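Quick one, T. Sequence first:
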Amino acid sequence: MLSQRNMQRLGLRLAKQARPTPARNVVQRRFNSTQNKPDWIVDNAFNRERENVKHHAASTSTLWLRLSIFAVIPFLIGGSINAYNLWNEHWEHWNHMPPLEERTEYAYQNIRSKNFPWGDGDKTIFWNSDVNYHNPDKA
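C-alpha cells:
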C-alpha cells in the first residue's frame, strides 16, 4: 500500500499537471515599436561604451573576414603547392635507391615477438608493399 507521504507526493504531482496554463502563455504579447531605441534606455557613459564596443566588434569582424579571404586562402594554396612539390621530390629520391630486397635489414627493424592477428601475421596494419620490406629469413 502507499504510505501517507507517497500519497501526498502523488497528489501534488497530479495537481501540477491539472493546473491550467497561464493566460500569458496562451496570448503572447508583442512588444514591437517603431522607435529605434526604447524610451527606458538612458544616454549615459555605460550605454555609450556599449555602443562603441558593438561598433568596434563590427569593424573588427569585417577586418578578419577580409584577412581570411585575401591572406589565409592564398597561403593555403601556396602551402599545398609546396607540399606537392616536396612529395614528388621524395619519390624521385626513392627511384635512385636500390630495390627493397637488396637493402640492409637491421636488427631493430621489423621485430616480431608474435604474429599479428590479421593477414599472414607478418605485416603491420600500416604495411605498404612499395615502401616496407621484411624478409623473415634475414632476421
